[in-house]
Structure formats: structure tokens, C-alpha cells
Amino acid sequence: MNTQGTEWFHRIYGKTNKRVAYRPKDFLDYALMCAVCALVIHVVYGASSPVGAVGIVLCAAALVMFPVRNGWAPGVPIVLRRPQEVLYSIVYKLLNLKRWYFVALAVLLLENWLISITPTWPHHVELMRTIAFWLFYLHLGAITAYRTWILVVHLQRRETVREILMQTAWKRKLEEQPNIVLEILHAYATGLLAHILLIAPWFLVITWLDFSVLFLAATCVLNVYVHVRFLKVINAWFYRDHWLAHNSEFEFVYLHGPHHDAIPSGLIGVAGNGHLEGVLRHSIGAPAPFFNPFIAALVYSFEVQGDIEAHQFIPGMYPKANLDYQKITQHSLHHFGMLEPYGFGLNIAQPDANPEFTARFKVLPEELKNGIRLDEALTGYRWANPKHAQYLDLVRRYEGPTQASTAESAPSKQASDDTHASNRITEDA
Ligand SMILES: [Zn+2]
Ligand SMILES: [Zn+2]
């Protein structure tokens, strides 16, 4: 368990400003964030490459969609009012680094040093680089195809998407901006842009650093070891970063905000992050970009695909919200307007959980599979809360075990009206 207490996890320089959604006056900050994203994409991928061009178009689309979806109002950007927030953010991330980040970086640098002092050995670095780029594009292409299929299903069932969201805290948003097709397309664009930015640090590594065929087995074993050890501390690392993302205005507006600006669908899934946030978390945080390309491709693929499934909080779609999974996580509530839980929100030790389903989590460390303990210790979070029960009821009605309420045979009008009146997953924020 963590030896650090509330004081460390909740330390902030300057004043706390709790945020969970964008406001019209954030528009100029958001525009600056989009410009920085476009610059990062241009520098990393090149504006003329297919990935770079798509990324920059998505940045422009995000900028156009903000005032349409959130409105806009003039305001002095945070980076002009409090430029020190940029420095604070970097310091927060540096102080939150875990030892496994440094071990992964050291393995990569050691490999490159060994390659440099043995130039006559058959390292085949160019072959390894070619394989690395193939793995990179295979990963991005396969996940994008998966995300695109999810988009097609959401568009086909758009009225069910609306019906379900109108029973949640998203009702207010849909009343302000009723075009559900725009919301679905915005979620897809959010996920794709966040994905392109998340893997930008990995792209830089495979572009500028070398990997040797001779060290392949050794680095793969070391990388797997590092990743397994990192999983023990990932919930604490995420909690701290995520707490800042909602308690520092700069962190929310520039880093984490896009993750909450889109409807709670698998379409947005990447690694629980916004746009620039992904670049920073995978430059100054997670060890994955430093891994051998084979292990990096595996880790990124499992992570992004898993995050897409983990963010499918609209039941009756593809992929499913999955009642068995929703029983053991409360991250859903965080996407329905609640600030907490700040960690991954997992708690597999549930009396009503499906043992066959939770068996797949057995290999995970205790700190992750029952990560809700950290929230309970630091914030007094209560797992047994009515909002989670209401959400489980929503999932049950649209994809419950009896299949009585599937997406295409949705609840009756009367049932829907009753739900609107008495069973809405709302947040007053
Ligand atoms: Zn969040
Ligand atoms: Zn999330």
C-alpha cells in the first residue's frame, strides 16, 4: 500500500479550483490548447504525413466544435493570468514519477549505448526500425478500425444513445446542444485525436532511438518485468495526476478537459486522458514509450482497447457497457458529473460480482484490482452510493441478463418517463 498520505496526493501550488466541465469562457484557453496540439503533431509526425494531416484537421475540428457545443465568452487565458501554472504542471509530473519510469528509460539508453560501442556487431537497427513503424501503424490502424465500427453502431442507434443520455447528467447538455449526431462525431474525433497524441512520444522514440536484434530477448523480458511492477503503482500514479486534473484549473482546461467534454462512450477511450495530457503522461509518467517496439505495441494495444471498453458507459451499444464490469467499477460516475473516484475506481471484491468475470482480474495486483481503497482512504469515498445503484439499474434495463430491455426493444415510453422523473443519474454541478 502507499505510504504517502492525503497531504502528498492532494498537494497543489496556488489555489484549488475544482473543475469537471468546460465553460464558455474557456474558449481562448481551449484554442491555445488546440494550437499546441497541432504544433506537437506537426513536429512529431510532419503535417504532410497521413497521421499528421488527420491530426491537424482534428485539431481544427475540435476548435470549431467548442463554441457550437459549449458556447464561448471572452476571457484572459490562464497562461497569461498565471503563467507559473505551466511550470507547476511539469513539476507535479516530475514529482509523481515512479521508479519504473527511470528503469525503462535506463534500459533504452543502455541498449543505445551498447549499440554505439559495438558498431561492427549485427544489430540490424534499420530492420528493427522498419518493424517498429509497421507495429506502430498496425496498432493505430487496428484501433482506429475498431473505433470506427463503434462509431457506425452509435450512429445507427443514435436515438437510443439520446434516450439513454437523457436519463443521466448529460440531459442538460443535450438540451443545450440537441444534435446527437454531432455529439457522437465529436466523441469519435476526441478519441482519435487523443490517440494520435498519446502515441506521439512512442513515435519519437522509434524514430530517433535504436533497437538491436541481439538484445531483443533481454529487453523484452526486462520490459515485461518493468510493466508488471508499474501496474502495482499505476493506480496511485493515476490518482495523483487525475486529482490535479480536476483540482487545478490549468490542468483541467489544457490537459484533461477533452476527456470529459465528450459523451461517455467507448469512442473516447485512449488511456483515460485528454489531448495534451496524453503527450505529457507518456513523456513524464508512463514507461511504455521506452519499451522495445514489440512490447510497446502490445502494451499500447491492450491499454487503448481496454480503455475503449472501460469507457462504454452507454448501455445497449457496441461494445457493451457490460453489467458484470460495471458492478466492479465506479469510473462511470466520474463521467456522469461526479469528481470522484480519482483512481481507476475498481473494486472486484463485491459480493454480487460474477466470479467467472472477476477471475480475469485475479492476475492484477491488489493495488489495482481493488484500487478504490485509495479513494476511500484519501477522500472518504463510499462505494455503496445511490448513484452507482441507479447506473447499474440503467445498464440492466438496456442490456440486462434477461435481455428484456435491449437497445432495440428499449423501455416503454411510460418507463422512460418514470426514469426521467425519479431515477436520473444526475450531478448538481
Ligand atoms: Zn477525470
Ligand atoms: Zn475516464
Could you characterize the architecture of this molecule?
The protein is mainly alpha-helical. The protein is built from 22 helices and no strands. It has one domain. 63% of the residues lie in helices and 0% in strands. The longest helix is centred in the first third of the chain and has 32 residues. One zinc ion binds next to helix 12 and helix 13.
- Contiguous helical run count: 22
Q: Report the bound ligands by name, code or SMILES.
A: zinc ion
Count of the separate structural domains: 1
The largest pleated sheet is described as: none
Structural class: mainly alpha
Number-wise, the strands total 0
Give the H and E element order.
HHHHHHHHHHHHHHHHHHHHHH
Apparent shape:
globular
Give the DSSP E fraction (strand runs of 2 or more residues).
under 5%
Q: What is the share of helical residues?
A: 55-70%
End-to-end Cα distance, whole Å, is: 32 Å
User: What's the mean pLDDT score?
Assistant: 93
Q: Measured on Cα atoms, how large is the radius of gyration?
A: 22 Å
Q: Uncertain segments of ≥5 residues (pLDDT<50)?
A: 402-423
Structure at a glance:
α2 runs parallel beside α11 (200-208).
Write the topology of this structure.
Layout: H1 6-9, H2 27-45, H3 50-70, H4 78-81, H5 84-95, H6 99-117, H7 125-156, H8 158-165, H9 171-176, H10 180-198, H11 200-208, H12 216-247, H13 249-261, H14 275-281, H15 293-310, H16 323-326, H17 331-334, H18 355-358, H19 366-369, H20 372-379, H21 386-399, H22 413-422
Helix pairs in contact: 2-3, 2-11, 3-10, 6-12, 7-10, 7-11, 7-15, 10-14, 12-13, 13-14
This protein binds zinc ion (ZN) (2 copies).
One zinc ion binds next to loops.
